[in-house]
Every structure is written in C-alpha cells, then in structure tokens.
Amino acid sequence: MRPGIFNPILYGKRLFQQFAVDTYIKIESSRLDYIRNNQDILRANQYQGLVDSWRTGVEDANEVGKRTVLSPTFIGGPRNMRRRYMDVMALVRKFGKPDIFLTMTCNPNWDEIKNELYPGQSPQDRPDLVSRVFRAKLEELKKMLMEKDILGKRKYKITCPEQYDLLISAELPNKKKYPDLYRMVTKHMMHGPCGMLNPLCPCTRGRTSCKNRYPRPFYDSTSQGHILDNQWVVPYNPCLLRTFNCHINVEACSSIKSVKYLFKYIYKGHDRASVAVREAGKKDDKGNIDEITQYKEARWVTPPEAMWRIYSFDLSKNHPQVQQLQLHLPDMHMVTYHKQDKIERVVKRPGADESMLTESNGKFWKPRKNAVYQVGRLVSAHPAEGECYFLWVLLNHVAGATSYRDLRTVDGVLLPSFREAAERRGLIEEDNTLDECLTENSLFHMPSSLRRLFATILVFCEPNDVFGLWTKHLDAMSEDYRRNNPNPSLVEQVVLIDIRNMLQSMGKDIRSFPLPRIDDAYDDASGIPREIFEEASIDQDPEDVGLSDSLNEEQRAAYEEIMSKVDTEQGDLFFVDGPGGTGKTFLYRALLGTLRNQNKLAIATTTFGVAASIMPGGRTAHSRFKIPLTFEDGCFSFTKESGTAKLLQQASLIIWDKASMAKRQAMEALDNSLRDIMGRQDLSFGGKTVVFGGDFRQVLPIVRKGSRAQIVDATLRRSYLWESMHHLKLVRNMRAQSDPWFAEYLLRIGGGTEEVNGDGDVCLPDDICVPYSGDS
C-alpha cells in the first residue's frame, strides 16, 4: 500500500474479501496439489529394511517402502496440529500447569485501522489492515508479557487467591473514578444478555442456560440499555484492557485438572462447517424440508484469516522451543528417497546410517553446541513394542549415555538387550505370575495348548523376560514332538514354527520377540511371505468347487461377468447389491471355490467378524488390509515389500462383503494403496478385480456423534469409486422362499415405504408377535 498510487483491489469492499479468500485457497491448494501429485515420487522405509532388500537383490527403490503423505511440517495439517499439542504438553510436564489463560480479540474500531480506511469503507472491507494491525498489537502484548513482565516474572508461581485478585478483575469499575476503564469494560468485557433473557444468543441456542455459565454471582449495576451487572463481566486485567482497548479475557486456570483439554481447544485445527445443499422450497411427501440431497464438510476461512496466512504470520509459537527426539532401535530409523533411486545408492549414501541422535562420525550422543534453551520431548513407546519400550525406559532414567552400547552397559558389563539392562538397573521388576501360569497349566494341558497359551502371553501380557519363559517351558511345550524325534534342534525349530503361526494369526511377527531364530532348512514357508502362505494353505471345501453349477439366473449372470474379468486379467470393479437372503455369500463361495481350485489367490474379507466366519478363509478387512483407526494418510501403512503388499499383488480377486457398513475412506485408501503397489496410478485399484457387496437397507457406517448427513456422506455411495463400479443386483430371496410376504415386508421396512406411527416407529403385525403372558 503506497501513498499516491491507486490500487483497485483495496477499493473492492466485498470483492476484496472474496479476492483474499480465493487467493489464499489457491496458495494452499497449489501446495496440496504438489504433495498429492508427487506422493509416488518420495518414499520412506527403515534403514535396516533397505539393507535387507538390497541384500536380497532388489535394486529399484520404487519397489520398497511406502509413499510419503502429508508431512507434520505442513502448517495447519492434522499431524502438524497434533505435534504442536504434544510439544506444549511437554512444556507442561517440564514447568507445570499454567496459571493464566489469556485470549485477545481484535477491535475493528482501533484508531490504527479507522485512520487508514478510504471514504465509505468499514473495517470489514479491509482484511489486510485488520490482520496487520492485530499482529502489531499482538506482538506488543507478547513484549509486555515476556519482556516487561507486566503480569510478573514468568518464573513466579501464583500461590493464593489474593495474588489472582491483583491480576484479574471481574467487576465493573467505579464510573466516576475510572471513566475510560468503565467505558472499555462495558463495551468489550460484558457477556450477554443470554439464557432466559435472550434464548437466541449463540451461547444459549439449543440449551436452557448459557454454556459459559453466565450470569455469575456479583453486585448490581446497569449498562448498554440492558439490565446487566457484575454477574455478566468477563474476567480481565485492567492494565491490559486500558492499553489495548479490546476484548482481553484473563482467566485463572491453574486449578484445571484436565489441562490437556485446554490445549486441545487451542490446537483443534481449522474451523469447519457442515453444509447441506437442497433445492429451494423443495419438500418431501410429508412436508419436511430436512431431506438430504448433498452433504459437504468444508473449511471455514474468513478474509482476515486468509490475509494472515498470505502474510505468513505465525499461527502458533512456543517458548521455550521443544525439540522432538526420535525413538528407534539401532539402524531402524526412517530414510526418505526418490523412487528412481537405486537401493544401493540410498544405503551407501553419506549419512543414511545416521539418525538425529548420533554423532556423524563415531555414532555417539553428544551435547548440543547451540546455547538456545530447548525442552526435549521423547516420543513415547508402549510396552507391547518390546525392546523399543525398554530403550525408552533407559533413555528416561539414564543420564549421560553416549551410545546404544553405553545404555546396555551396567556396572561394566555389556548386556545383550535393553530389557536386561533396564532390569539390572532396577527400572523394571521381574514378574513371576506368567511363569507360574505356564507351570500350572503344564500339569494339566497338552503341549499344543501350552504353545497356544505361550503365544497368547506374548501378545497380550507383555512379559518382561520372554527368553527366560521360553527356556524354562520349552520341554513342556515340546513333549509331543520329543516323543517321536530325539533331535533337540529339530524339536525346538518345530515348536518355534508352531508359535510363529499362532502369532501370525494374531497379527504379530515372531521376529519382534527375543526368541531363537527359525532355520530356513526346517521352514516349509521359508522365502514365502506369511500372508501368501496362509492364503495358499486354506482348506478347500470340495462342495465349494461345484457351487457354480447351483447358481440361479441372477447369481449366474453376476458370476460369469466377474469371472470374465478375472480370466482375462483386465481388472474391474463390481458391487453386488441385494437384500439379506438373496445369496450374496453363496455367490462369493462359488467364486472363491472356482479360483482356489485353479490354484489362484482369492482374498475374502468382510467389514465385521461374524460375516467373516461364514466365508471360507474369511478375514475382516481391517485385519487383512491393516486399516488404521484414522484415514489421515489416504492410504494404508504397509510397505511395498511387506507380505500384505505381495499378497495383494498376486491376488486374482479381492472380495469385500458388507462394504455398505464400512466408511468410504477405507475403500478409497485401499484404492490408493493398490495403485501404488501395482505401479498403475491411472487404474482403479491398480487394475485388480475387486468385488464389493452389501445392502444399504441395513446398518450404515458408524460415525461418532455424527448427524444423519455425516453418516450418509461416509457411505460408499458418496465415493468417487461408486460411479465406476458395475452394479450387480440380486433380487430373488433364496432364504425365505416359503414365506414371500415376510421377505417383501422386510424390503418395505428397509426401503422406508412401510407405514409408521406418529413417532416414526414401524408397527409389527400381531401375527408375528409373541404375546406376553405372566412372567415369561
């Protein structure tokens, strides 16, 4: 903004506001588009995983690792907000709970803003002025708090209510003695009226009282034409209010027990709006106008926020700074690389085998040279992570350690594991209950049951001394094998393979536990990923092979259309739509039986476990595809060289039943993952033949505290995949052929055409109800 130069944008009023928002959205969209379009270029993997892949002969870096996703460095992203929250909680752990919670709100009538307005303009017409003046005021406030100690020195702690009274006021000042302060309090620091006095106030809407607990008990007075008193005064600091002439709320927060909720509010992320779009005046048959036609969850961006982001002003800042310290076992740190790189170059490039915790030459820790004070935050670990957890325990209690070797050295003795080092230092206690459990069960149970119990203990009980339990109870777990084979090495290997298979069925890898290694010479599945070995070992029911001859006309048409795509390896998407009883599972069994009889891999998954139990070799989709709890990444976490990825690469058919009950984000994440591991970004699901099935008349996806619109938006029908699917309908009810009325009755209920009472409930006919009699 230069004097004497006409800038039409600054005179645009509402057009300027729209221009500001559009410009910021373009800037952010360009960044997100770059990340989205280059996700397949940058990849990441553990250093040790790269070394293993290189040694097995894999050369192209594109064949290993996983795609990178939205980085924590992307300001405003979910990972960025979570990292900032964890950083500030590290400060709470270091310095204790905060005493003061202070918020500052911009005053659009500041002289610095009004003096720069052009004739006919209001502050809302100049979001550039609003954001820049507010930032200048905010910087001055921070200077007063941090350098001038206007509220006292930062190292001081408030210890009594009288000290709070010196800093915080929640009453109307004397109008004659402090006229300016009185005017500012009545203008900026009065809440309401709300509650019964004003039910339409935002803090009361939909409630019987104010959500901020106003009015609060104090003395009487009158202001602004409403009968307001000290009960309605928002707590403030008189000095700060006089200085900045705006809403500055100063609250005492040291008594808050759950301080984490305070910072969750600060780092909750961007404002969002749920938008329902419908045709103006359109109503349904019953006169309602809340029928869902289109739903969209959108970001809420205001012009001042847009200008704030365009100017690159800070969204948040911590003092002192927090340094996040990575936690990983030796050579297990993450390495990023481009997909066109050769693995040998990545492994051998300078610094690839170094982490942020190691000195570049000797690979040991040393104090930082920078004199800037920082607070360290070590990434947490769970006891189920085994050695990584014990490394975390040691790092939190051992001062002055300079290397991994130093951490494992106790009283001059180098111990083989971090667990033993933690136990020798007295940081963990030996737990004998699991040993006693195995000893007691060995008296009554067969060896196979003991092996199952041992695997269960490894997964769910987090034993401290896994190798000790193994050594002590190996004889009891191997009695059945020792009876027929005197070779102790072979017996040990067979027991290990049994336990490995049990752990794999629970989703665990035996290599993550400190047990003896399995010799490839004894392992039938050596060199074959566990997931592929499991699918290839599924017992085939002879009846399933001939089920294709028993299909009805609808099922036959669907079967032939799907098999034509599988046989020609063209790949396609299908959705089998049919009410309960129309034979969807029967169709799946016919497909699985035919393909498995041809020694092809066919993956059978469902959304929940009960349905998986009635499909041959069925697994839940969450278990098979490693679906995470959240879908921030847009793809799953398995890497290209993992067993899950190799199984999906070799699968001829993927079936996902009850897909109508799963969130569409899960199917979209599977699509993105398959495009990546198949190397075919332009084809849905990487060119695989995928069959979804379900009935949208039944239970829809679960959205926590979600509205009807949000639940509908989470369904597969709202996905971009829906239009590209071939829809195969099954109508004939095979389960209730003897009672067609009941089948039609269920369809009317599911379709919403059955009559309901005034409360919207369906009334059951008397002939299908069991009358109540007595106590039965």
From TrEMBL:
InterPro entries linked to this entry: DNA_helicase_pif1-like_DEAD, Helitron_helicase-like, P-loop_NTPase
GO MF, any single term: ATP binding
DNA helicase Pif1-like DEAD-box helicase domain: residues covered: 551-753
Helitron helicase-like domain sequence ranges: 2-155
Record GO biological process: DNA recombination; DNA repair; telomere maintenance
UniProt keyword annotations, A-Z: ATP-binding, DNA damage, DNA recombination, DNA repair, Helicase, Hydrolase, Nucleotide-binding
EC number: 5.6.2.3
Gene3D superfamilies according to UniProt: P-loop containing nucleotide triphosphate hydrolases
Family per record: Belongs to the helicase family.
PANTHER family: ATP-DEPENDENT DNA HELICASE, PTHR10492
Protein name per its UniProtKB record: ATP-dependent DNA helicase
Species of the source: Setaria italica (Foxtail millet)
